[in-house]
Amino acid sequence: MAESFNILNIGIVFAAGFLRTKLRKQMTQNLISVVVPCYNEAECLSPFLERVERALADVPDTEYEILAINDGSKDHTGAVLEACRLQNPRLGVIEFVRNFGHQAALSAGLVRARGDAVICMDADLQHPPELLPELIRSWRQGFDVVQTVRRTQPGLTKSLSSRAFYWLLNRFSEVEISSGAADFRLMSRRAVTALLALPEQSRFLRGLVAWLGFPCTTIEFDAAPRYAGRSAYSLKKMIAFAVDAVVTLSAQPLQVALWTAALALLLAVAYAAYVLSLMAHGIPLVKGWASTIFLILIMGSVNLLCTGILGLYLRAVLAEIRKRPEYVISRYLAPAYDPGLHGTLPSDDGRVRTEVGGRS
Predict the structure, then answer these.
(1) How many structural domains are present in the chain?
(2) Most buried of the four, 147, 152, 220, 238, by CB within 10 Å?
(3) Is there a single domain that holds both residue 93 and residue 193?
């Protein structure tokens, strides 16, 4: 009887020690969430997930989850994600009702991410997954934001448009954004929480992350060509994106409109003074339409320019007043893998849910 009691005690002590060791290990591990917007990326997903898994497998004291957002893809991206999720329990899938755009997809992933740090990146493999361990090392050194910056950009048109975009943005923006900065970045949990707390309906995440002002470091990389498919960003979309970014981050275009109008007024006053001086000296005025048309064109152009700039800001104000959801989720399939103490979020049962930034 005593011997059985001793064996039972030994078993209890062993089990308690095992649980303490496991608990201590879980408490020292970090959960990393990888947020991946997907739009017509069916051909890229399998190699992308393989490279992400290889990159994160050997990072010490790290667990991870991958949240893929199907942003209303027109190909079989959704089917590929479901098949990959069956093979990879760390993969979760968020499906939008329709295409809401890259920034909305990132916001949805940030809301669902459970990690101590969150990495945002694209699925087309232009953002190299092999850089993930370096991002995590920089975060563990104390940086809340680890921003990647492209050294090179494939394609002359893309490279020139990117340079023009950052030149324009930094001329008008209240915060400086590194030229070539991508949406490929790591954010700490407190940075993500602060970002989701911002009340803006229209979100230009690169600018908002810079505006927060958390300790940040940059890592340069060479952007590879797309693994498959073609970019969804046409020149028209890039111009619209640049305009929205400037309007979101700065009120300086309104000042430009004011100074332009003031300059036109000075020119009109100067011209009127010139005409009056000619009349005062008895110099006959040549009747013609050139000067009249010239003045009308100048004043009309300035008027249209100022009205257009005001219209952009009124549109932004209207979007804030409407408070429409940034995106609509049709289904959420949570990662099946349970990373210890972090718990799991239940999958939706197919109901449509609306979320705006960090609010549901």
Answers:
(1) 2
(2) 147
(3) yes
